[in-house]
Amino acid sequence: MKVLVTVKRVVDHNVKVRVKSGHSGVELDNVKMSINPFCEIAVEEAVRLKEKGIATEIVAVSVGPAAAQEQLRTALAIGADRAILVETAQMPGALGVAKLIKAVVEREAPQLVLLGKQAIDSDNNQTGQMLAALLNWPQGTFASAAEVDVAAQRVTVTREVDGGLQTVSLRLPAVVTADLRLNEPRYATLPSIMKAKKKPLETLAASAMGVAVETSLETLRVEPPAERKGGVKVTSVAQLVDKLKNEAKVI
Ligand code: AMP
After folding, report:
1. Which family would the database say this protein is a member of (predicted)?
2. What is the pTM of this model?
């Protein structure tokens, strides 16, 4: 079974993000970029499927600038077999990205597409859902467990929903998006990083894929979160109750 896994290049989660002076976005110059953490979990899941003998080939795909090759190399070091970069200088909106990934899916014909549930930069949480809709495939989002039954051509997905866990059974081919508790991704070892340098990485120009990616959405302004005020330590329950009642006015 071929598995396609998506990998987005984002600002590293340890970086304190700074908003650009014109409020048009966040500063990306000289900022450490990494693989989106939920995509790392998706790649790990694909590698575990291969280790179990379920997946036969893992193709990692990224839509982004040439520099996203770095993140694809990371996916190759974790265990993907080959990678495809859909190169575009300007990042399309989520629908554009979903359409480009759909074009790759149609070319590669995987049985399972694994994505992160969310990209930590845009926080859209919609690419997997849009891709499933465009492909007319079933989707299992927010997965905290996924069991593939190749003989039955189904995947059982445990979903983290507000009230607890929901288990769904999807017919393959299907789209699954990874939540935090799906697995703990391994660290790429030095030998695997060296090996990844020799794995195939193909680049396709987004403009040549025959996909309309113009967006109808415009970012008007980006603001940093409000500074948090420092807290105080109270010395008694009575003082706490007094502050909650008279200062915070929440009780
Ligand atoms: P989002 O809907 O933007 O929150 O992203 C959800 C997931 O879609 C991410 O975790 C990725 O797996 C995938 N995705 C989004 N944008 C891209 C991209 N430019 N390249 C590859 N995968 C992406």
Report:
1. Belongs to the ETF beta-subunit/FixA family.
2. 0.92
